[in-house]
Amino acid sequence: MKPNMGGTDRIIRLxxxxxxxxxxxxxxxxxxLGIIALVVAAIFAxxxxxxxxxxxxxxxxxxxxxx
Length: 67
Description:
The chain is an all-alpha fold and about 70 residues long. About 65% of the residues lie in helices and about 0% in strands.
């Protein structure tokens, strides 16, 4: 997998994931919505760590800086 995410995208995704997890564990997001938020947070965190987003390849996006 060739990286297709830039640093800004990775940071934003990690922040959104952290917020979703915090909202779930403080009881703000509960039930089905809370579970969906946790799944999305896990996906965001995983794609941030590996610097690859499958949806970016489908839509032809690449925010990774040229090397």
